[in-house]
Amino acid sequence: MSRQKPLIFIVSGEASGDNLAGRLMSAIKARTGGRVSFAGVGGPQSEAQGLKSLFPMGELSIMGLAEVLPHLPRLIKRLKQTVATARELKPDVIVTIDSPGFCLRLAKKLRDSGIPIVHYVAPQFWAWRPDRVSEFSKRVNHVMALLPFEVAFFADHDIPCTYVGHPAIEAGAELGDGPAFRARHNLPPDAPVICVVPGSRNGEVRKILPVFGEALLLLKETYPDLHVVIPVVQSAAAEVTRLTGDWDMSVTFVTDMAERFDAFAACNAAMAKSGTVTLELALSNVPMVVGYRLNPITAFFVRRLARVKYASLVNLLADREVAPELLQEPCTPENLAAIIAKLLVSSEAREAQREGFRVAIEALGGRIPPPSERAAKVVLDVISEHR
User: Fold this and answer.
1) Which residues of the chain have pLDDT under 70?
2) Most buried by CB count within 10 Å: which residue of 67, 79, 185, 228?
3) What does the alpha-carbon distance between residue 43 and residue 98 come to, in Å, rounded to a whole number?
């Protein structure tokens, strides 16, 4: 389709993908001098860059087989809506970001459209289902990988893949100002402060936040001046507020993304779900324990399919358990509280984690050019090649 400026159709399904989309869109605008337009599905970061989402992104923020089933009719409706809109608009490229459950189904339905499809955040087939790679190769034209070792994996399966780098390394996590955050929020400079990161999906928040809350109550018995900081994304804000309403302790909610890394830097330790946040905390030098719970049915299948030793990104990159992982049954208030208590009193335990963080971060390679600029170049190159 001939047009004066490229139209890029972007689809992200959760907060982390929306953050990627926002940075990617900003980088594309910089490379094109603003001569670009966007359409698709996204959240506040995408909308800040000019995308008008077809529907609320939060409708796609569902994880796990058992969790998805009740929402299946709505998801099918949104999939059809997204496919129809993409076919109608005939964009120059479709960029699907993470959320493989939705995005790869979308790619399958649009593969015959003649529109090139770039998938951002390589699906972790190397961790779960390597047998699905051949089907994936029929759905996308190019993959943008966050982790350096993924390029060789996809090359072995003849799938064009470019390592663009992990977005956490350009986000400024290491620049957080902890003392300033404490001063703004009236947190005593010498009080123990624990960061709690329960996730961005309502389902996972419901599973893990009550467990984190019970662990914090146990810690409060030893540390009566304990303070808690919870970074909250828009998609899970209501659920987090509901679940913490009866907590008998000081809780500071961080809803402004600009304050997120200041909040990390203000904390002595963290309880976090597995995922990108573990790398952000590592960059912020915050020792942590990783906890996660799934629906038992989902957990059963995950255990049968998993081909990796670790769930958290920082441990995968370091290839050892830098941050303790408590997954499913071991994820109890008592276990969580014991690890946090050790991190609060033991400088050796804290430094052991920080040494591991340095190994994980080095595995990601250089930061220049930043990942968003590398990703923008890939997307624009794909458009150029297709034209």
Assistant:
1) 1-2, 61-71, 125-132, 294-308
2) 228
3) 14
Q: Tell me which CATH code domain 173-362 carries.
A: 3.40.50.2000
pTM of the model: 0.76
- Type of residue numbered 39: A
Residues contacting 200, CB < 8 A, separation 6+: 14, 15, 16, 61, 233, 235, 236
Is there a contact between 278 and 314 (Cβ–Cβ < 8 Å)?
A: yes
The pLDDT of residue 292? 82
Of the candidates 68, 57, 48, the residue with the CA atom closest to the CA atom of residue 16:
57
Whether 173-362 and 7-165+366-386 are alike in CATH topology: the answer is: yes
Amino acid at 188: P
The one-letter amino acid code at 337 reads A
Report the pLDDT value the prediction gives residue 15, as an integer from 0 to 100: 84
Q: Which residue shows structure tokens 């982790």?
A: 147
Burial label for 387, CB within 10 Å (0-12, 13-18, 19+), is exposed
DSSP for 37-96?
A: EEEEE--HHHHHTT---SS-GGGG---SHHHHGGGHHHHHHHHHHHHHHHHHH--SEEEE
- Looking at residue 374, its amino acid is R
Give the span between the Cα atoms of 274 and 313, in whole angstroms: 7
Tens-digit pLDDT profile for residues 251-283: 999 998 889 999 999 999 999 998 788 999 999
Per-residue model confidence (pLDDT) at position 64: 45
Q: How confident is the model over 149-196, as pLDDT tens digits? A: 889 888 888 899 999 999 888 888 999 999 999 999 999 999 999 999
Of 127, 144, 125, 145, the residue nearest 135 (C-alpha): 125
Break the chain into its structural domains and give their ranges.
7-165+366-386, 173-362
